[in-house]
Amino acid sequence: MMKIKQFMIIVSVLVTTSCSYHITKNYSLTRNSSLMGCDPSVTKMLDLKGLNIRYLGSIKLDDLGYTIKCSEEQAMAMIKEDACKLDVQFVNISSEAYPDYSSTCYRCVADMYILGEDTVTRKIINRGKRSILYFTNTETLEWDSFEITMSETSTVPYQLYIDIKLHGSKPSMAGIPKSVNSEAVVYADLSGVKKSYKTEQGLKHLNGLFQLAQLHAFRLSSFLESKDGRTAMKGKAGAQGLVDQIYADLNEERKRYVEETEFGQNKIAQEKWSQSISDRLDVQ
User: Fold this and answer.
1) Residue range 224-267, pLDDT digits in tens
2) Does position 16 have pLDDT exceeding 60, yes or no?
3) Which helix H or strand E contains 54, and what residues bound it?
4) Measured between alpha carbons, how far is 135 from 220 in angstroms, rounded to an integer?
5) 46 by DSSP, 3-state: which?
6) SS3 of 119, please?
7) What is the H or E stretch that residue 132 is in?
8) Could you tell me the sign of the dihedral formed by the alpha carbons of 114, 120, 122, 128, in that order?
9) d(CA 261, CA 264)
10) Is 284 helix (H, G, I), strand (E, B) or coil?
11) CA nearest to 89, candidates 108, 109, 116, 110
């Protein structure tokens, strides 16, 4: 009978602590902001590239070991409460795990951010997803690829936000992806153009920039698939040094391209560059 009572007491304790998390934070709640009317935006695994935000800190909610159940709703309530106390307007869940064989809890890492005075950033966050064009799926930009209409008083005719993204297969036992490749992407939600620039010549120029980025992405993929590249990824810094060098090379070539073609308005120079880029793509 005593053993049964002890068992019931233990179960009772577990039930009453069923929403206990192992919580890790790298910030302090030093402010006493009002929670009234506070409702920060929460996104999941949102690509934050190019957004006007400032990182403030993170909170990690993990299974305490004897927790019976902690729902996603309970976790979000805890995260939002901290966000409100920090005067944070935006929270991004950077990793999460749902209940499985190893835990009955919803677990996550939430990153806290302060938003800048930027309507484009706020629009993206409110939408909760990015508009990204991948070279392997797109290859050719069209005018509707640009979500922003720029003012005619702008000193430049366009704003093309290009990046190179890495893709890796499932890591091996050593933690190294079995294969890695990269490709150029355009963030359409950050890219804009003047109406007066929407000409055939202008579009040819912009596609040249997209293709230039893909050429450097091919170069990065070739290295990462090589023996030297595999060795570099095993190092503490991974292949970051080469990635940085390729970005530097790309930016230098983009600068020459824009200057020599005069934003595509120099037709002879633009045609010369377009042919060179096309020839280089053909040999990849």
Assistant:
1) 777 776 676 665 455 667 778 888 999 999 999 999 999 999 99
2) no
3) strand 53-63
4) 15
5) coil
6) helix
7) strand 132-134
8) negative
9) 5
10) coil
11) 116
- The pair of three-digit structure tokens given for residue 133, joined into one six-digit string: 């064009």
Class of residue 4 by CB neighbours under 10 A (exposed 0-12, middle 13-18, buried 19+): exposed
Collect all residues with Cβ–Cβ distance below 8 Å to 234 and sequence separation of at least 6: 174, 176
For 231, the enclosing helix (H) or strand (E) is: helix 227-234
Which backbone phi and psi does 230 adopt, to 5 degrees?
Answer: -60, -40
Q: For the chain, how many residues are written?
A: 284
**Residue 256 token pair:** 């020459």
Give the torsion through C-alpha atoms of 243, 248, 250, 253, to 10 deg: -160
Query: pLDDT value at position 237?
Result: 56
Per the structure block, which two tokens stand in for 223? Answer: 């290295």
Pairing of strands 192-193, 148-149: parallel
Looking at the DSSP bridge assignments, the partners of residue 192 are 148, 159
pLDDT for 33 beyond 90: no
The amino acid that residue 66 corresponds to is: Y
* Cβ-contact 75, 62 below 8 angstroms: no
Residue 44 Cα to chain centre, angstroms: 11
175 class by beta-carbon count within 10 Å (0-12 exposed, 13-18 middle, 19+ buried)? exposed
**Which pTM was predicted?**
0.83
